[in-house]
Amino acid sequence: QVQLVESGGGLAQAGGSLRLSCTASRTSFRFNIMGWYRQAPEKQRELVARITNGGSTNYADSVKGRFTVSRDNAKNTVNLQMNSLKPEDTAIYYCYVRDPWYRETWGQGTQVTVSS
Length: 116
Fold this sequence. Notes:
By secondary structure, the protein is an all-beta fold. Helix content is 0%, strand content 53%. It has no helices and 11 strands. Strands 2, 4, 5, 6, 9, 10 and 11 form a 7-stranded mixed β-sheet that branches. Strands 1-3-8-7 form a 4-stranded antiparallel β-sheet, with no helix packed on it. Strand 7 (67-72) and strand 8 form a beta hairpin. It is globular. It starts with a strand and ends with a strand.
């Protein structure tokens, strides 16, 4: 059973920055996909950014140019650098990984609040 430990998040002012990190328990394989989703109050969970084992990235249109996803395969870590934050970025952010057998694991979530 893969365990995910998220860190970062918290409170930021509009225009500010935050960094999220997520470390997966040690594995003998690399995750096909690592990334972040978010869920704002009364909204569905949505993809924020993800990165494949090969380094290809996908971003939600709303965060392109502001957020950067990266991974460190040696540490089984995925990071999300969030710059130029907006109040609409306020949500619970969830780490997500998918292994080579398409099994998915979610983190417990970390709150990000952006004040105007």
